[in-house]
Design brief:
The chain has helices spanning 33-46, 90-100. The protein is an all-alpha fold.
Length: 101
């Protein structure tokens, strides 16, 4: 019997994985494999990273960028708070800063 649910889609999921922690406070979160892959792809695209080359739109290598997750308390920051800023342009970071204020 599955007793938990994915924070992102609300589907049944109750497996905590070591890498699935909030990027703000490090609290473990529940995220299903489908949402995990979807979030990874969205964040790579947001950073301008092509999965074929692992390069940003500026041509810089960004291998090893992991997905960043947000717990329920910090879910409102999912579009503007990232621990790893690699791949973001100055304009992207300025926009994120405005959203954080």
């Amino acid at each position: 019997t599955i007793v938990g649910k994915c924070l992102y889609c609300g589907g049944p999921w109750d497996v905590f994985l070591p890498e699935s922690v909030c990027t703000v406070c490090r609290e473990p979160i529940l995220i299903c494999p489908r949402c995990k892959l979807d979030l990874y792809q969205k964040q790579q695209h947001l950073r301008g990273i092509t999965t074929a080359t692992n390069e940003s739109s500026e041509g810089k290598s960004v291998v090893g960028i992991r997905s960043e997750y947000h717990c329920e308390d910090h879910f409102h920051l999912k579009e503007c708070y990232y621990t790893n800023l690699c791949g973001f342009s100055k304009e992207d970071m300025d926009s994120q800063m405005k959203k954080l204020r």
